[in-house]
Amino acid sequence: MPQHSEPGPAQPAIGGANRKAASHLPFDDTQDFDDVRRGFVGTASDPLIKDADGRAVWDLDAYAFLTQDCPDTVNPSLWRQSRLCANHGLFEVADGIYQIRGFDLSNMTLVEGERGILVIDPLLCAETAAAGLALYRSHRGDRPVTGVLYTHSHADHFGGVRGVVTDDDISGGVPVFAPRGFLEHAISENVYAGTAMNRRAAYMFGAALPKGARGQISTGLGQTLSTGSVGLIPPTRDITRTGQEETVDGIRMVFQLTPGTEAPAELNIHFPDHAALCMAENATHNLHNLLTLRGAEVRDPRVWAHYLTEAIDLFTGSCDVAFASHHWPTWGRERVVRFLSEQRDLYAYLHDQTLRMINQGLTGAEIAEQLETSMPPALERAWNTHGYYGSVSHNTKAIYQRYLGWFDGNPAHLWEHPPVEAARRYVEFMGGADQLLSRARQSFADGDFRWVAQVVDHVVFADPDNAEARALQADALEQLGYGSENGTWRNFYLMGSLELRDGSVGTPTATTSPDVLAALTLDQLFDALAIRVDGPRSWDADICVRWNIRNQDPVTLRLRNGVLTHVTGKGPAAADPDVEIALDEDTLRAVLLGTVPPSDLATHPGVTLTGTPTKLTELLSHLAAPDPDFAIVTP
Prior knowledge:
There is one protein chain. The protein is an alpha+beta fold. It contains 21 helices and 21 strands. An 8-stranded mixed beta sheet has the order 1-4-5-6-7-8-9-10, covered by helices on one side. The chain has a 6-stranded mixed beta sheet with strand order 11-12-13-14-15-16, with helices on one face. The longest helix has 26 residues, at 333-358. The relative contact order is 0.10.
């Protein structure tokens, strides 16, 4: 871990607010601490999980400091949640169902069959998944993997699959189950906007932050992201409807499709022979995201609440335990129904009350301020409804965005200046940087860190080399992080503070892996190229390349008006090509992904070129590389 500037202490206003929060929370309810340790079998003897080069990708001991009393630099509710999430090892959920917890951001579930095991959600990285499987086998025997199941399309639930199975296993008949639409969404989320999402995920999960009471302690959903090898093996069997039943290795499963909830493609699973219900990521011990801070499509809380009601109706009559791909299980039918009902009511309340206030003319920010302090008391008393990962504030703004978009209806906000131009004007109107900073320091002393961050941001964007502004902004963000109950807010604030002081720390985990790229359809691959076209530089270009792909219809690419279009077949939309290239699909993919240079095609086996070959090189020269390390807290 690189050396970073030493973080500061909590200011009196933050320390006092955290102590006050502790006095109002139901810390006498310790059920979660009983549940999180229930069924513990054992953990790994070596806390470091390493990749093939010996680099540590996960440290089981990194959060040992959480056994101490909560300091002033951490919200006590988040400290409690983080302590729960830090429990790691192999746990028995029910007879024949086990979970690996604390080995990654997510859980890996193993269900024992007649010959081997079904692996559900094999973590984010191959190294952590392999370590988890090894731990299971050390206690339960060397059982083969006889099936894999992805509950949904987020990388921390499929990325470690190559740590538990190989391509030969799949060719040999090991099925891979997933909900309908899984592959499309898994790929599009990690490719089209993948660079931006990964950069923002570095802030959201805080993997580069030092671990400790003044640094990263959790995301609320789990500890952080592992930093190993992310892979993908495409599903071989789709789950297409609620009520669909499948059996693998004697394990009976009944599925509930839940599209549009926590992920665009997601499902829950009932195991009738075990009286157990897997809720994927639809019911976890926190308020989840309706719009994740790393960026994604806005999720639908109305639909989410509907599917939770449906799950209660379908499965809880024969359910003794509910578990998920994060956090710890809930045992007992009455407790399961109460837990799922509280989760349902949480999303329904946020949806309905946000819409009520929208129709009264309030904006997203105004609604967020009101709902943050006016949640139903019964829900507020339930630990599982707290905003450790999602928050009432950013979720209500997401609902506003889902229904009304970015514009709040005020014409003054219709054509605002972009950040740098606005910042320069604000600083000038406020009497210059020195006067603004002087007043901001007083606000800092008064404990108004939220306002300090808002106004000093203008100085940083007007003059990013202003060391005094950067230092004050870093201090303000740090205090906001110390006071946050939400793990991802804390990480965002502390990452912003870190990069203002020390510069960019990069993106520790990238989910756009070779496996993900290989799973792209040709249509998706051409679309991924189109979003890389540098439009202004390509306004005057008119280049047409036809790919005559062996055993497939030809595809014509045309760059014109700064837009790269592709047409399958030779219909009216396919322009006359400048060059035609006959080749197989593997070679085409290699060219488009940059592993075979266009200049090598003339001598490449099985490739024929007709026309002007340099036109392909010219077309590809109009593609711009994405920036995986773009600035966030500076212009």
